Amino acid sequence: MIRTYMPMIDNGLFVAEYYLKMPYNDITVDILYNNIVLFSEKIAELIETEEFYRKITYTTHVNSSFTQMSTKKTREQLIREQQEDLLDNMGNDKNCLYCGQKQVNTNLNIDRKFMYGLISQTFYNSANNLQTVDICPICAYLSMLSILNIQKIGMPTLYISDSDDLMRAITEHIQNLDIEDLDLDSNSKANELVNVSLINTDIPGYITQFCFQNSGQIVNDVERTFYNKDIKLLKRLKKENLLDEFLSFGFHNNLAFDRPLVNDIIYCSKELFKILEEFELKEKEKKVVEYATKVLLEIENSEKILKELKLCNTKNKFNNFVLEYSEKKALVENVKDYDLLTGYNWYKYRDYINMNVLIYKDKEVTIND
């Protein structure tokens, strides 16, 4: 088997690896087929005995054997037969859109009951003339196994990373959670992403939290991602005992959506601010901000500067602020620095000037006390 980097498929792959106790690239179609009973029994038992799984299948694999009702067959039989049907119908008609292998069977109807993102019964393939989708039976089968790696954080939630070691660690972590720890408050999404990112493995290129809904007419998803540099920041903050403060300001929410961390209503500790400044600003940007702050404090008292910065809620107003103070003494050393300060990221520089002035003001108060 190979990775696809599609959340449902790859989570199913690492679930298979975990329970079969072999590297995923050693797993074959025959091995999966010979272990259908293992997985169908496990999934059926969880659906039949745990309310968490019984409910969540209606938002992950609706209309599949996970949710179908029968008076003649057990849940395990329904699941086993559907999984056997998939692996019995390997094809060679087309290359799979996900794994790239030529094992698509265009006569096999693979739709939303197997995985997120496929329009049930009406998804047209690349030829745009058949009511099938170019997904192979293996990817559909693995997607079914992903139910064993699901958490619910307001929405069904999976994680996907480019790191095999992190995926293995996440899978092992989830397999060892108690049922009540799989169903979490919807407001804890970003916090859980932080927790997963700090699992003790080599730092990955990225880790994405994939929250989705695949039920009825509702098909939607929300992705939060930490990249390598973000995870390095989190690990540094943890090491320097600043992570709790970072989380208390909600900076991790901004980090996950690639938004600016600091804004004009935040006043964090000097220690945390300096790390954030180093993280968000390039050396040139930092010098421009520090120079502008230094000159402003030479011209005016901190209280007045802060009040005026508060009013700079548009690019034009900030530009006027810079120009008016520059008439007294230039806030930048050259035209290039002016273009940088008042350019596309003007709001970021405004907020960092604001924080620098706040720190200066706090230092003043401490000295006077």
Structure, explained:
With 369 residues, the protein is an alpha+beta fold. It is 50% helix and 10% strand. The chain is built from 17 helices and 7 strands. The protein has helices at 7-20, 29-34, 36-49, 51-56, 75-87, 137-145, 164-175, 189-197, 228-239, 243-248, 251-256, 270-280, 283-299, 302-310, 315-326, 335-341, 346-368; strands at 94-95, 102-104, 151-153, 155-161, 183-184, 206-215, 218-227. A 5-stranded mixed beta sheet has the order 5-3-4-6-7, sandwiched between helices. Strands 1-2 form a two-stranded antiparallel ribbon. Helix 1 (7-20) crosses helix 6 and helix 3 packs antiparallel against helix 5. The radius of gyration is 27 Å and the shape is elongated.
